[in-house]
Design a protein that fits this description.
The protein is mainly α. Helices cover 77% and strands 0% of the residues. The protein contains 5 helices and no strands. The radius of gyration is 18 Å and the shape is flat. The model has no long low-confidence stretch (mean pLDDT 87).
């Protein structure tokens, strides 16, 4: 579960090659193309600040406490977390193919 949380947080941080990186990249690219450089700068600063907080969660999660607490996990939730983590990794690996498919779909819209 901790690994799944770490992968999700890396994606939220915008670390390449995770899907969150591409989302932020295209968002900032669109803002810059719209000549709103100040807004892109605010977004980049906000992303940098968020990295600090997300990394802190990962650090706390990785630190080994002296006493081990057993947390019961509901099996369907574990399966859902594993499935979503696998989808996040697949989106990171095949991001180019997904982007090409998205561009093809958008080009066919009226």
């Amino acid at each position: 579960m901790g690994g799944s949380l770490a992968i999700a947080l890396f994606s939220l941080m915008g670390i390449p090659p995770f899907a969150g990186f591409f989302g932020k990249f295209f968002l900032f690219l669109a803002v810059i193309d719209a000549d709103l450089l100040w807004l892109a700068l605010v977004g980049i600063i906000g992303s940098a600040i968020s990295i600090f907080y997300y990394a802190r969660v990962i650090r706390i999660m990785v630190d080994k406490p002296d006493d081990k607490i057993k947390i019961e996990q509901f099996t369907p939730i574990k399966l859902m977390v594993v499935l979503l983590t696998i989808l996040t990794v697949i989106m990171a690996i095949f991001s180019d193919d997904i982007l090409v498919q998205a561009e093809n779909i958008v080009s066919e819209l009226p």
